[in-house]
């Protein structure tokens, strides 16, 4: 096993490649060989390095020094000065805008602690960073009920959007009658604007495998499935590689850590249906059926895959499990708020200077996310609104900028945190124009199984589209409210229920702007072609 004294990460996203990232990386590798450093310094690729707009970017660990933008002619100096002599090249340093000056606002990386630091294709590097320590502790030192108590006491809530207590879900599954029991990792990340699970799996695949095996031990399951969005080709490749490596090391398969506990993991690729992110539709898909949600109750912990007790957790939820087992529930509760422990991974998009991915404690305000981690809004424009949780999230006005971003506080404020996508919109955005693609998306993605969603999404989109063309009717707002409330109350699954959220929150906070479109036949911002 090769252990390196330094890791050099090069941004290889599409924009970086256009700016010469491949040449920068190749030159870096050649220079390391020239100085005989190639056995001491590991070069890695990352598709993104957070919210950095000057590319290509080079990030050097363990010093956490960022150089950007880097040109081919800079490489010789970086290798000779920094990597050989240990002297930082000050002229190339790029300050990380998402690292705040106040310690309480620093990124608290639990889920992403390994991302970018280890080679995700080498199990040895995961092991060297406490990988599979938690699994060994569980299998050799703990009983299933003790594992369940640790997870429950940590106050880990589901990170897929529903925020259901993870320990309670596991307990229900363990107590449920029926064999075999199943563990499913939901990696069908189809929410527009959300890519946190992709980066977790790309950067640290063994963490999810370890967590699933721990969950299997805790609930009495011996088989798990990772349901991965079909478009995530690199994720699928790395998970397959990680499963093979875990088998070879004895962390998967029979007699794990020399015990009598066995566990296997299979991969199931999604086929592009947004509704399959809903846990029962996902289960139907694994069973080979059309991806449609089931009527609930019963819920998966009692009646899941092939009618057997099943745990379904989001990738980010699973990623918290190994560190909780290693460090204990009290350690985890030091992060976040009293009611919502731990951290949350967010993707930041829209009218923001630094787009990308951050992991911060639960309870941070949206204002701090925008000003500190996002480095503000371009052109000194004013904030107008944000949508949390992707397409299905709440629309939040300026008056809610200081609401703590945890599940409980957001719910009390009449909003939802959702899966973790933050779409930031400045004062130039029209609320009707924003609602058009959102409502069209749900109209397109509805599976059509239940009437409220099938009919409701179509009617809502047609009304919004008509308003945007100047054809709004006096009754449109009340009609939108009635349809949305009916969908929220009676739709079979979360798709129809969530489709109502952006519409209702937009009417609540921006009713006047919508009325101007309807009654005055004017778009106040001149965006809609009326």
Structure notes:
This protein has helices at 14-18, 21-34, 75-84, 123-128, 133-141, 144-153, 166-175, 196-203, 205-219, 233-249, 279-286, 315-319, 321-327, 329-332, 366-373, 407-412, 431-445, 451-468, 476-490, 494-519; strands spanning 6-11, 41-46, 58-61, 65-67, 182-187, 223-228, 264-269, 310-314, 343-350, 356-361, 383-388, 395-397, 421-426. By secondary structure, the protein is α/β, with parallel strands linked by helices. It has a five-stranded mixed β-sheet. Strands 2-1-3-4 form a four-stranded mixed β-sheet, covered by helices on one side. A four-stranded parallel β-sheet has the order 7-6-5-8, with helices on both faces. Mean pLDDT is 91; it is low at 98-105.
CATH level 1 name of the largest domain: Alpha Beta
Give the count of helical stretches.
Answer: 20
Q: How many domain modules?
A: 4
**What would you report as the Rg, rounded to the nearest angstrom?**
24 Å
Q: Looking across the biggest beta sheet, what order are the strands in?
A: 10-9-13-11-12
Q: Give the low-confidence spans.
A: 98-105
Main sheet properties: 5 strands, mixed
Structural class: alpha/beta
């Amino acid at each position: 096993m090769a252990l390196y004294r330094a890791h050099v990460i090069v941004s290889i996203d599409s924009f970086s490649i256009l700016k010469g990232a491949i040449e920068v990386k190749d030159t870096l590798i050649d220079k390391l060989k020239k100085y005989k450093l190639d056995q001491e310094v590991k070069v890695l690729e990352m598709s993104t390095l957070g919210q950095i707009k000057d590319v290509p970017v080079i990030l050097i660990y363990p010093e956490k020094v960022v150089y950007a933008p880097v040109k081919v002619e800079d490489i010789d100096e970086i290798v000779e000065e920094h990597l050989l002599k240990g002297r930082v090249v000050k002229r190339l340093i790029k300050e990380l805008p998402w690292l705040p000056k106040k310690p309480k606002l620093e990124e608290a990386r639990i889920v992403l602690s390994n991302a970018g630091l280890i080679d995700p294709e080498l199990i040895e590097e995961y092991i060297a960073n406490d990988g599979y320590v938690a699994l060994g502790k569980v299998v050799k030192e703990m009983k299933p009920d003790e594992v369940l108590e640790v997870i429950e006491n940590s106050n880990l809530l589901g990170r897929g959007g529903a925020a259901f207590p993870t320990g309670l879900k596991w307990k229900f599954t363990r107590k449920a009658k029926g064999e075999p029991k199943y563990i499913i990792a939901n990696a069908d990340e189809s929410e527009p604007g959300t890519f946190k699970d992709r980066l977790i799996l790309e950067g640290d695949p063994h963490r999810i495998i370890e967590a699933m095996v721990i969950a299997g031990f805790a609930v009495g399951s011996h088989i798990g499935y990772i349901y991965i969005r079909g478009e995530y080709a690199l994720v699928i490749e790395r998970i397959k590689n990680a499963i093979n490596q875990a088998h070879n090391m004895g962390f998967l398969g029979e007699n794990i850590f020399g015990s009598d506990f066995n566990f296997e993991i299979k991969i199931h690729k999604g086929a592009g249906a947004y509704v399959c992110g809903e846990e029962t539709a996902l289960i139907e898909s694994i069973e080979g059926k059309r991806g449609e949600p089931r009527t609930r109750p019963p819920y998966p912990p009692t009646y899941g895959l092939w009618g057997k007790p099943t745990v379904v957790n989001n990738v980010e939820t699973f990623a918290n499990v190994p560190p909780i087992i290693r460090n204990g529930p009290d350690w985890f509760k030091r992060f976040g708020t009293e009611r919502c422990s731990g951290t949350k991974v967010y993707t930041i998009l829209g009218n923001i200077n630094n787009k990308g991915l951050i992991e911060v404690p639960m309870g941070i305000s949206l204002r701090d996310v925008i000003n500190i981690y996002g480095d503000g809004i371009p052109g000194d424009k004013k904030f107008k609104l944000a949508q949390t949780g992707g397409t299905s999230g709440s629309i939040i006005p300026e008056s809610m900028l200081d609401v703590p971003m945890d599940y409980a506080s957001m719910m009390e404020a009449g909003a939802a945190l959702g899966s973790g996508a933050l779409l930031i919109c400045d004062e130039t955005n029209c609320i009707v124009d924003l609602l058009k693609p959102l409502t069209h998306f749900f109209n397109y993605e509805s599976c059509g199984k239940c009437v409220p969603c099938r009919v409701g999404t179509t009617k809502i989109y047609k009304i919004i589209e008509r308003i945007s063309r100047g054809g709004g009717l006096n009754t449109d707002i009340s009609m939108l409210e009635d349809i949305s409330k009916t969908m929220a109350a009676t739709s079979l699954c979360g798709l129809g229920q969530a489709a109502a959220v952006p519409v209702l929150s937009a009417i609540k906070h921006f009713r006047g702007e919508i009325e101007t479109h309807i009654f005055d036949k004017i778009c106040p911002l001149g965006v809609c072609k009326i």
